[in-house]
Known about the structure:
Strand order of the largest sheet: 2-4-5-7-6
Order of helices and strands: HHHHHHHHHHHHHHHHHHHEHEEHEEHHEE
Structural class: alpha+beta
Strand content: 5-15%
CATH architecture of the domain at 492-625: 2-Layer Sandwich
Distance between the termini: 43 Å
CATH topology of the domain at 492-625: Heat Shock Protein 90
Mean pLDDT: 81
Amino acid sequence: MKRISFVILGLTTCLYGLFAQSNSPLKPVTGPETLLNELAVSLNKVPLDSQKIFSLYSDAAQRLVNRGNYVEADSLFEIAVQLIDHEPNSLKIMEMKIAMSSMLKDVGKFNQALKTLLEVYDYYTLTKNSNGQLWASAYLVEFYRYTSNPELCRKFITSGEEIIASNPDIDLSAKAYLLCRKASYYREFIDINDSTKHHLQIALKAANEADNKYIMALNQNEYGRLISRTNPENAENVLYYLTAARDNMLADERFRNYSTVLQSIALYYVRNGNPALALKPTLEAIDLGEKNDWRGTMDDAYRLAGEVYFELGQFKQSATYMNKALAASYIRLRESHSIEVNELTASLEKNIAEQKLAELRTATQIAEERALTNRKALIATVIISFLSIIIAITSAFLYLRFKKKNALLRSQQEIIKNTNSKLTDAIEQKNVLYKELNHRVKNNLTILSGLIYLQESGETNEQQINLYKTLRERIQSMAIVHQNLYEHNEALKIDFQAYLRQLIPNIAAAFSNGVKTSTEIDCDDLIIEMEEAIPLAMIINEIITNSFKHAFRPGMVGKIHLWSETTNGKRFLHYRDNGPGMSINHEYTNAQSLGMRLVNLMILQLKASLKYEGDQAGAYFRIELR
């Protein structure tokens, strides 16, 4: 029944994908030439000293940013910045700076992006422009989400919600964009499906009210990805939202975002067994990215292409794109080391603190001047004046003493806070790099396994074929360990039960030779450390492979039983099959074969022990772990 359900799901996805492609004619993705020609025509119609010159360059640059044509947009922004003095409308300047910050973020210039965006936020705050404040808050939420800073992301979400609550006539598009970024925050940092779905529904409703195709498309893409993760068999619903997002992005000429949606569609197809449908959107996304030098997202696109070609059996193409993905990831990680976002944020907080301190000093100075005037006016007698001076000196002394202690305490608290923040960032960066390392190792092992399979398929010598199969299974056992390390949040431990459920079917597919087998695994309580994972995986792989190669004969039903227990602080892993058993002088005691030499090396590495206690009713091994 499960196989039938999978086939039905695949057919549904294929049919819906073909229908969406053939019945939704889309306008082609065009280059920036038309827009630049329009700008040239408009510039010829106005004098060089006209105030309209700034607006023409600024508006064209903003449209190019929306399209993702960053090279051309950057050139126009440089000219527009030189013409700022000709523009009396500060709001237009702020709109241009928001677009500039968005472009700088996307090309990896995070310091400049944040500095520009904070200037906009400060301006709208000082001028008490609620709509501008809301837009700036929403873009700051997106910036801190993009740079993985959930604390500051949440801070500006709260700030934006306060603006919405206190201004009933707020700009609907600004409100919709903030709610959209809030939903992305919940998806990325909270990761609770029900909460994410709730906030996406609110954001979708707000985008529809604002009639903003771009914001609608952002939400539709997020919603389609959420459904593909929580209910992947509902192909019609997933593709409805993703194709709607694609069409809206294309209609609004948001080509960089259009490329992102193409990758979402391709990823859904390949995850649901339709790599052929995934190939076209993947290659289109790569073509757009390479033409526009979108380095920030190319590693994901290349990796997706490698996965698609691998599923299609085109291993050479898969290896080529996987290597491109590794190179792109290396470049992006190298550039990210120059990011100093936290320093700039600290600088902002310092400036705010200095501003408040200056205001306090001004207030203190005014108070002192008033006190001096009052003392001159109210001096009645020498005694009263003398007592007033004594009281003032004593109060000032106590005030300065307590102020000094409070300042010292605040300084120490700030040092502790900054230290904790740096430690948290370091841990998060280590975890990200560690997961990326495991992902790359797993991908490389998978590619290596595919290359060995290609060599195996060209062999006619049965002995060589068995040798290749054994080698592939050893590599695959290590690849599964790295996959588990990548997919689970707990980076230092592995659920060995889940690992075994992945390993045994792979071995059965390679060595069963038509023999039916049943497997019973009772290792729920066996959680192993990271350094134990590879050696123990290799041992189990060799023992199970031996059962399939020597214990199970044609016509019989092979049985494998694995279970674990913990006694007196020691962990035991037991293995039994129903084969004919083996002699006590078998290779597992003589250590003559490559398999046993490998097992003994792994046992020594684990500082564990392996005992064979089988009989004619089957082989039985007991592994004792420390």
